[in-house]
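Issue 218. Parser rejects a valid record. Input:
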Amino acid sequence: MTDEEINWPETLRAQDSGQQAAAVDALRGVLLNGLRIALNNRPEVSEAQLEDFAQDALLRVLDRLDQFQGRSRFTTWAQAIALNTAFAELRRKRWRDVSLDALLTAGDQMAEPAILPDDVLGGDEDRTRLVNALRRAIAEELTPKQRAAILGELQEMPFNQITALLGTSRNAGYKLLHDARRALKNRLLEAGITGTDIQSAFTL
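Output the parser choked on:
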């Protein structure tokens, strides 16, 4: 029986324990193979990690069977969960040893020319004006914690880790980031830089 012929949701819920166990084992193999292909350009990811990612993803898929709506192949849906699981864990590992002091220091440096040089996006005058305004806004409008939170978000640090490092709750973290974004937006608007200007400067 090919993958396309398997009714995964039904088989994974089978009353027959042997049939269900076989389906679970088969799905784990599908997820593991998919992760091997997707992450084959990441030499730092070991086979043991791939096994762990596949196992974690399998548990999530089984827990969310009722959420599958049939809009795609079941294995495509399950693989998306597996990839999200793997990338989330890789991000957590990347930032696991970062300290609050290091994050705050890096956030403070966001306003320095070495981090956002005038010509970071080339010699275009509009881009340079935008970068200068953004650099001033970061330095003058944001608190140290807001700068750290914005930097963590830009560098794809997991939100839970940002809040843990800053010693805030999730709700407080959301408000911190919301207030920081609003402060930057207002400062750019005061400098005469609109959303249209930003799209034009970055050719989005």
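Fixed in the parser; the record now loads. The domain at 3-95 is CATH 1.10.1740 (Rna Polymerase Sigma Factor; Chain: A).
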